[in-house]
Amino acid sequence: MKDMGVKMMWIVPNILLYLLAIGVLWFIIVNAQTMQEISYFGIWIIGLLLLLLVNFFGSYQIANWIKQGKM
Predict the structure, then answer these.
(1) What share of the chain is helix, strand, coil (3-state, %, to 5)?
(2) Dist. CA 62–CA 10, nearest whole Å
(3) What pLDDT was estimated at residue 7?
(4) Which of 5, 24, 56, 70 is least enclosed by beta carbons within 10 angstroms?
(5) What does each C-alpha distance from 39 to 7, 18, 57, 69, 71 come to in angstroms?
(6) Which band of pLDDT confidence, cut at 50, 70 and 90, is reported for residue 1?
């Protein structure tokens, strides 16, 4: 078994990014009407999608590293 600290160093921030994405989604839902009025709704949706893209890529990369035995 490889060093568990290295795995945790990559996995914990990834989990925290998913929690951040949930928080951003909640913020968007709660403030959707106001953001549409000031034309920021689209910017927040794009930001959320970019955050999720980074999260998914990070999860994929971590899974590949574990499968290859690098972690």
Answers:
(1) 85, 0, 15
(2) 7
(3) 83
(4) 5
(5) 41, 26, 29, 47, 44
(6) low
H or E element in which residue 18 lies: helix 4-30
Torsion of CA 35, 38, 43, 49, to 10 degrees: 20
Query: Rounded distance, CA 10 to CA 58, Å?
Result: 9
Report how far residue 54's alpha carbon sits from residue 62's, in angstroms, rounded to the nearest whole number. Answer: 12
CA 4 to chain centroid: 22
Specify the pTM: 0.84
For 7-31, how does the pLDDT look when each residue is reduced to its tens digit (9 = 90+)? 888 899 999 999 999 999 999 999 9
